[in-house]
Amino acid sequence: MKLVGFGCSFTYGSELMDPELEDDYDRHYDNIPYREKHCWLGQLAEMLDCSFDNRASPASSNYSIQEEFADWFDGRLPDSNDVICIGWTNHLRTSWWSDGEQRWVHDGFIRNEDEKLFHDSFKEWLTLSYDRNSTETNHAKLFVNSVCQANNIKIVQFNALCNIPTPYEFINFHQGDQNMQNVLRNEGDRLNKDFLAPGEHPNEAGHKHYAKMLHSWIEAKNIV
Fold first, then answer.
1. Model confidence band, residue 92 (pLDDT cutoffs 50, 70, 90)
2. I need a surface site. Which of 3, 17, 86, 190 has the fewest CB within 10 A?
3. What's the pTM?
């Protein structure tokens, strides 16, 4: 079995830095094994004794999460051993695909960059398309869930950040309309523990705690 993860920084594992590395920012690639092992996806894979593939990206929008899932699925034969794991992000985010750089550009990273093209596009989006965000989130969830259902692909999903209430009854949606960040904040208060890092991402203890919650829920629902 393999967990295939999609999402934003909460699935990617932002702020998880290997304490044994110096100059962490410049040694990003050296930090990957530590980050992926300690994020909730890696922790959950360890609990389920399986492999995982973390395809999340910091600042992703739900639209880009949908597109990354489509890129993964397109042209492949459904594998009954794959379990899709998605931490849906905040519905107010948006993304562009850059043909020149062959990568997704997320609005969270371009607000302060000196890139006139992206700034002009961002202004146009704010003026003309901002109200589409809720719709894009619903469409992204509809697309991913429909593909998984049609191909008998197991899915585990939840809101990583504050999101709009979903009007649909999606299967295997952990914590309903709650979100990982608030759940960990409340759990930290209840248990008198710190589950969030200074930048409000989950720390190692937060990722592990949420993975335990997911694991218990997965076992109770007999998802895998």
1. confident
2. 190
3. 0.86
